[in-house]
User: What shape does this take?
Amino acid sequence: MQIQFIGGARTVTGSQHLLSINGKKILLECGLFQGRRKETYEKNKSFIFNPAEIDTLILSHAHIDHSGNIPNLVKNGFRGPIFATAATVDLCQIMLRDSAHLQERDIEWVNKKRKKKKLDPIEALYSFEDVETAMQQFIGVQYNYPIEIYPGVTATFQDAGHILGSASILLEVEESGSKKIRFGFTGDIGRPEMPVVRTPDLLRNLDVLIMESTYGNRLHSQVEEVEEELASVVNKCCDEDGKIIIPAFAVGRTQLLVYMLHKLFDQNRIPQVPIYVDSPLAVNATNIFRAHPECFDRETYRIFVQNGDDPFGFERLTYVSTVDQSKDLNEKPGPMIIISASGMAEGGRILHHLANNIGNSKNLVLFVGYAAQHTLARRLMEGQERVKIFGEEFKVKCKVKVMDYFSAHADQGELLDYLRLNNTDRLKNLFLVHGEEEQALPLREKLVQKGFQNVSFPLSGEKFDI
Assistant: This one.
């Protein structure tokens, strides 16, 4: 077995890991790099391997930094099956279409600027047609049901507790000479006891593991503390008649926020202010959540199935679909809460909400997830006083707050606990991905202290023979 780390290596976006097993090439993930436009376009456009030579793609979940470049892979010759859970397949159907739409719109803007400079136009990474072709190659699988991908290679998808349909993957490999390897890939690991989705299933008795490290350097708050903090933040801003603008991933984070705000409303811990979810993708994704109650945790399942209530709908909540409805929010006075995509503020309707609201000191921008380097979200988190949106400079006068708890990624303690069913003498190859140095290196140090002897933090392009 050989592993080559391509994307998501010493960074958080663009996840892509290539396995060579028994003469077959298996790609784990095919995500989009996010960050500076020109730099990411070039990274996403081409592959360091020939897509036509990839035999199979295994996808852990639907987030765009893991799935977003699949149509481009297909466009460039990949013809193999794409294995993912049924919920992930449904989510990719809408998320990849949305990605194609955003890219085509972005390329139109870029080409207008290129035309003024007398430069040739460039094309979008992929089109709606490429998405439709790619979707025909998806194969939905069940949790905890082993499937033989090839003779000698069996895959089992386990619930990763990150978003709806997310999975960690166990590959049981029998190489020539009867050498057997239990290979694990965490995908993105969620937090135990989070609302909506289930607690992650643990991978166990592994020989090799590729593990995420997004929050490998910190500990999150507990759910009770966060409910109290969220209520406090909402009450304070609403007392000033301010608007709370929340950039959030349309899939996972938005539904979690809606669930928690619903709970705070029911308990009369926050005022009955209007809440708007302004993202067509989030609207469609929420409908897919409703269609997959088998992925819910026990409490959400009880509310949804046994009681017949909708955890993602209540009286003061409005799902905004049209552009005109979205623009109307700019004219409405506070207090109100607006949840809009994208979470890293690199595209989508959140941009015009930020442009219209960051100049008012009454307002609050609340970040509830991770933001990669060079994204607008990261610049706001870091306290930059001026930021560019739509090419125009804006002065930041609003308040900015970060609440890490809402991240769907396990913290350092939870990542370490995730490995408790693995023997340090057996798990001799552990690779940390999906993290920058400041997150991954402290986690590596803790893992070494626990007795794991060979913990690597691979570079992009680096290969390892197992």
